[in-house]
Structure formats: structure tokens, C-alpha cells
Specification:
This protein has a single domain (7-160), classed as Glutaredoxin (3-Layer(aba) Sandwich). Strand 8 (128-133) and strand 9 form a beta hairpin. It has 6 helices and 9 strands; from the N terminus they run E-E-H-E-H-H-E-H-E-H-E-E-E-E-H. The strands form 3 sheets. A 5-stranded mixed sheet has the order 5-4-3-8-9. The protein has a two-stranded antiparallel ribbon with strand order 1-2. Strands 6-7 form a two-stranded antiparallel sheet. The chain is an alpha/beta fold. The two termini are 26 Å apart.
Length: 161
């Protein structure tokens, strides 16, 4: 079942690359007592993710934070090495969290997994964005097609804020 507005996020642990290596970040650490924008992509370095989805959030980071958001995070079913390289190459390192849902545990728990095997990608996340307040989903925007980043893009999130 797909998570819905008003639902509490399930407990999960992500990995994020730092200068000292990988660190584990739990959903409690990321969301408890905070207002957070989380957006998910089918894969780091993939065309729509790298050319459209991520850049919109990086370009609008300060405006989003100015609207009362405490943090922004991007999630993908990739390992922490890939997410760290994407953070570095995109210029997003230190600006937003690049979370590795390496085993798709969180993605499956929220019911937003996508089988993209036909395109050679295997099990990934659907493309979405959500506004989370103290661990509770306040807005959820899921794309119909993984190649689109409109309803889940930064401009759409800004309209919600």
C-alpha cells in the first residue's frame, strides 16, 4: 500500500557519504521535529534526475528553506558511493542530503517502488516529492511517468509551501 497524506513515515536507515565515509541517518534523525522536503528519483546520474529534477531543488534551495523548511533530501535506490559521487558532481554536496536507500527498504515500506527492469535499471523508486512535518506526510506528489519531473519538481513544491 502506498503511503498517504497524514501517514507517519516508517522507520528506516539511509546511508550518506561524508568526508569521513558513510554515515547512517535514521528517519527519526532526519524528520523528528522538523519540516523536510524529500524527493526521490529513479536513479542518480540518470537523465531526467540529473538534468531536471535535482537542479531545480538545488537552484531553489534557499527559497525553499526561506519558506520554513528545515532540510531538503534526495533519495535514490543506489549505494552511498554513487550518491556521494552525484552530490559531488552536481554541486549539491553540503547543500542537501543525498540519501542512499541501498536495499530499497524505505522505498518498499512507503509503497513507492518501481520495477524498471525493462529499461535495465531493476527495482528503483518512483519519482516523487513529499513534504514531511515531524515524520508525518503533509503533501505527496508522485509522477505518472519516471521520465517526467513536473508534479514532483521544485516549482510544484514551492507552490505548496
Amino acid at each position: 500500500m502506498t503511503i498517504a497524506i497524514g501517514d507517519k513515515l516508517p522507520a528506516a536507515t539511509f546511508k550518506e557519504k561524508t568526508a569521513d565515509g558513510p554515515v547512517e541517518i535514521t528517519t527519526d534523525q532526519l524528520f523528528a521535529g522538523k519540516r523536510v522536503v524529500l524527493f526521490a528519483v529513479p536513479g542518480a546520474f540518470t537523465p531526467t534526475c540529473s538534468l531536471n529534477h535535482l537542479p531545480g531543488y538545488l537552484e531553489n534551495r534557499d527559497t525553499i528553506l526561506a519558506k520554513g523548511v528545515d532540510d531538503i533530501a534526495v533519495l535514490a535506490v543506489n549505494d552511498w558511493h554513487v550518491m556521494g559521487a552525484w552530490a559531488q558532481s552536481s554541486g549539491g554536496l553540503g547543500k542537501i542530503h543525498f540519501l542512499a536507500d541501498w536495499d530499497a527498504g524505505f522505498t518498499k515500506a512507503v509503497g513507492l517502488e518501481a520495477d524498471l527492469s525493462a529499461g535495465g535499471l531493476g527495482l528503483r523508486s518512483k519519482r516523487y516529492s513529499m513534504l514531511v512535518e515531524d515524520g508525518v506526510v503533509k503533501a505527496l506528489n508522485v509522477e505518472e511517468s519516471p521520465g517526467q519531473a513536473t508534479v514532483s519538481g521544485a516549482a510544484a513544491m514551492l507552490e505548496l509551501l
